[in-house]
Amino acid sequence: MSVMTEVTIFVLAAFVGFEVISKVPTTLHTPLMSQTNAIHGIVMLGGLIVVGYANDPLEYVIGTIAIAFGAINIVGGFMVTDRMLGMFSKKPKPKAAADSGDGAGGK
Amino acid sequence: MADVLSQIPYSVLEPGGDAATALYIVAFSLFIIGVKRGTHPTSAKQGNLIAAGGMVVAVVTTLLLDGIGNWGLIALGLGVGTAVGVIASIRVQMTEMPQMVALYNGVGGGAVALIAWSEIRHGISLGEEIPLDELIPVLFAAVVGSVSFWGSNIAFAKLQDLIPTRPLAVPGQQVINVVLLVGIVAACVSIAVNNDDPNQAIFIAILIAAGLLGNLVVLPIGGADMPVVISLLNAFTGLSAAAAGFALDNVALIVAGTLVGSSGTILTMEMATAMNRSVGNVLFAGFGGAPAGGAGGATEERPHVSIGAQDAAIKLAYADSVVIVPGYGLAVAQAQHAIKEVADELEKRGVTVNYAIHPVAGRMPGHMNVLLAEADVPYEQLREMEDINPEMPRTDVAVIVGANDVTNPAAKNDPDSPIAGMPIIEVSEAQQVIVIKRSLSPGFAGIDNDLFYEPNTSMLFADAKQAAADIAGEIGNL
Fold first, then answer.
1. Where is the domain boundary, B287, B313, B340?
2. In contact, A33 and B265? CB cutoff 8 Å
3. Which of A21, B16, B45, B149 is deepest in the core (most CB within 10 A)?
4. Judging by beta carbons within 10 Å of its beta carbon (0-12, 13-18, 19+), is residue B176 exposed, middle or buried?
């Protein structure tokens, strides 16, 4: 890939990121941060690649730690996000006052 | 073992070839869809799974690339990392979520910095000139990854109370930071101009200096601003991952890293707006450093009303409407279930109960909603600040449980206060206020709360969980 192709991809991806996030309810700020945090764990791919051409003990160590760090980032990140979001998926118990109580805006 | 494994032809995809690129496109499309779904409450959980699916595609594709080797090391790294990630995620308490995110962000940044180091060693060992379009991204990844690693670790340590949450400033801090930054840039330039034979010692010095910078930038920031800092470092780590993608010519890294970088930036600004702080303000104006001293000396002397659980129970039981304002103290005391019991007792008596959730209640936006949902508090009782504030004058009793700064009237009344202008839950508008708190000590922002000394405020000094349990019992006995 030429540098300018990569820059093109970079700029377009940046705009996609800006557009995708708009008016997120505050409730979802933390889970969303956690999810995007897990996504940058993709850097582990870099670890997989560099360990392939590692050829001295120090590089073995660096590459292996990089893979382990990346894997913690990915696995931990997605699992923690799932746990957080799981807290919202419980259905509120049906309550007698639920239908009228919800309209609390009425004075 | 590694030798035997390396002879098995796992590698079937050509790096940068059509098949690998197509699979990477599938992966990053899933990331984009996942993040998009993550912005809506109903689809967020599904969005997270979709993004995780994208990650599986990306990892498997990479493992199939030609040139991937040292399978023993890969298995070791993946095994250890996965085990740590799984165990940490299962064990972590909901209250500790924010620092967990900080830690995961930190290791991501650390991985970027290590990959950059490995890349530069590889370049040196080839003995050829390293093209600048590879070297510059490597240097960027090294610096930002290292800053992010150390910065996130400091954020983790602050939230975990391993180091004081108050702003820690070294004299001449800003000057040191500027000197470090200039030094880092100069060292990067010196490597770039000698790209035919880069000096590895200078590169390691850059890693160390950037790490030091990460420490120094985050240490002076007070705990209350940590969510914004973590979110910002998250965006940085994303950008550094994208830089690693430029260096390795990997389209999945470029797109995913950039996506996190830009969406993380927007998210950071939204969070800062919710706290009425600008990002620059957070980074460069150590929150609450000076003003804490002013009122601090007189704190214990100021008159306040102190009550017990029984008095509180009576005030609550005979009210028509009660608003509970939960804060991080509730989370620390694990009092969410006990508070729910109080609410249940009150509702049995026909009292209307609502929860007022400040955008940054807890230690991150949305953190408190997660905690209360864990205690089965019905979603419709969780009211946002803008929604509940107009109802405050009609509220009989506002109960503040372990919240502090988000109720401080100084944000509205005192233009000199460090939190001036921060939106607050206007509890002082309520007929009566009960504050359940262990002491009069200042909150996360390190400033005194005038609310405690107002005539309609009663202080109940106790652990939040114990106090809530006592109040629930007393209401039951009435």
1. B287
2. no
3. B149
4. middle
User: Given this model, what pLDDT does residue B258 score?
Assistant: 97
Q: Which domain holds residue B310?
A: 295-477
Task: Determine which of B42, B114, B271 to mutate to test the interface with A (most A C-beta atoms within 10 Å).
Answer: B114
The total of structural domains in chain B comes to 3
Nearest CA among B364, B352, B359 for reference residue B324: B352
Does residue B3 share a domain with residue B50?
yes
Both B184 and B325 in one domain: the answer is: no
pLDDT one-digit tens code per residue, B237-257: 999 999 999 999 999 999 999
Smallest CA–CA distance from B113 into chain A, residue: A66
Residue in the structure block whose two tokens are 């006990």: B338
> Are residues B139 and B258 both part of a single domain?
yes
Q: Where are the domains of chain A?
A: 29-86
Q: Give residue B67's pLDDT.
A: 87
Phi-psi region of A56 (alpha: psi -120 to 50; beta: other; left: phi over 0): beta
B250 in contact with chain A, both atoms CB, cutoff 8 A: yes
Find the closest chain B residue to A46 by CA distance: B115
In the predicted structure, residue B26 carries a pLDDT above the cut 90:
yes
According to the model, what pLDDT value does residue B413 have?
82
Determine, for residues A40 and B252 on separate chains, whether the beta-carbon distance falls below 8 Å.
no
Claim to verify: residue B119 and residue B140 sit in the same structural domain: yes
List all residues 6 or more positions away from B368 whose beta carbon is below 8 Å from its beta carbon: B326, B327, B330, B331, B357, B358, B361, B362
Same-domain check for residues B461 and B385? yes
Confidence label for B11 from pLDDT (cuts 50, 70 and 90): low
Please give the average per-residue pLDDT across A68-78, as a whole number: 97
How close, in Å, is residue B177 to chain A by CA atoms? 26
Contacts B41 to A, Cβ<8 Å: 25, 27-28, 88
Q: Given an 8 Å threshold on Cβ–Cβ distance, is A30 in contact with B110?
A: no
Reported as type and span, the H/E element at residue B401 is strand B397-401
Residues A18, A20, A23, A26, CA torsion sign: negative
CA distance B73 to A60: 7
- In this prediction, residue A103 carries a pLDDT of 37
- For residue range B76-91, what is the model confidence (pLDDT) as tens digits? 999 999 999 999 999 9
Q: How far does the CA of residue A38 sit from the closest CA of chain B (Å)?
A: 8
Do B88 and A21 lie within an 8 Å CB cutoff?
no
Which of B45, B46, B263 would you mutate first to test chain A, the one with the most A CBs within 10 A?
A: B263
Which of B37, B62, B91 terminates a domain? The answer is B91
The residues of B annotated with a catalytic role in the active site are 405
B408 and B310 housed in the same domain: yes
For B105, other C-beta atoms within 10 Å of its C-beta total 35
